[in-house]
Specification:
Strand order of the largest sheet: 1-2-3-5-4
Radius of gyration: 16 Å
Order of helices and strands: EEEHEEHHHHHHHH
Shape: globular
Mean pLDDT: 86
Distance between the termini: 35 Å
Largest sheet: 5 strands, mixed, barrel
């Protein structure tokens, strides 16, 4: 089991990154929250969680120990896999997600793709006592550049959404708010998809 990886960021995307360590490039799935903290870095250290399946060996990376711990708590819930947990951590910041679970807000959980009423209720019942009620806000660094639409489209398609639906939603958001950040654009799009 890997605990962390430290190396050079050779590729960054809102859904994954590639870190070169020891001459090997590791493909690591990340949440939007972690991406926000990595986007201006060249060297980094990510805490890891490894998922071994019959058909794949996957690495999930986290900038903070608290985000990794929340991810590990989420995947213990029946019906929540690693990709759904990553989607949850991309839709809500870790402290917001903890607060949502602690307060029993099923509506906020249901707004996340892949989470229905029964799954939202199960998450709340199983994790309400486990999640920390202490909020430690992570500093988010926002990205402003001309490729924001392409990066958001790439991230959402990677998460499993249809390209046509994503383009329509992203275009609508950008028409109403031209100064939106990449992270906010993806979060708004996730709520509309």
């Amino acid at each position: 089991m890997f605990d962390y990886i430290k190396g050079t960021l050779t590729e960054k995307n809102p859904a994954y990154c590639v870190i070169e360590a020891g001459g090997i490039g590791y493909f690591i799935n990340i949440s939007l929250t972690t991406y926000g903290q990595l986007q201006h870095l060249e060297q980094c250290k990510l805490l890891l969680h490894q998922v071994i399946r019959e058909d794949a060996q996957l690495l999930f990376g986290f900038h903070t120990a608290s985000e990794r711990e929340l991810f590990r708590q989420l995947i213990t819930v029946s019906g929540i896999g690693a990709n759904t947990a990553r989607m949850m951590l991309s839709s809500l910041k870790p402290d917001e997600l903890r607060s949502t679970i602690a307060t029993g807000n099923t509506g906020a959980l249901q707004s996340i793709k892949g989470i229905g009423l029964k799954t939202a209720q199960r998450v709340i019942v199983e994790l309400r006592d486990k999640v920390s009620k202490t909020v430690h806000p992570d500093e988010i660094i926002f990205l402003h550049n001309n490729t924001i639409k392409d990066e958001a489209l790439s991230a959402l398609v990677t998460l499993g959404f249809s390209k046509n639906a994503v383009e329509k939603v992203i275009t609508g958001i950008l028409l109403t708010d031209k100064n939106v950040t990449l992270e906010e654009l993806i979060k708004r799009a996730l709520k509309q998809l």
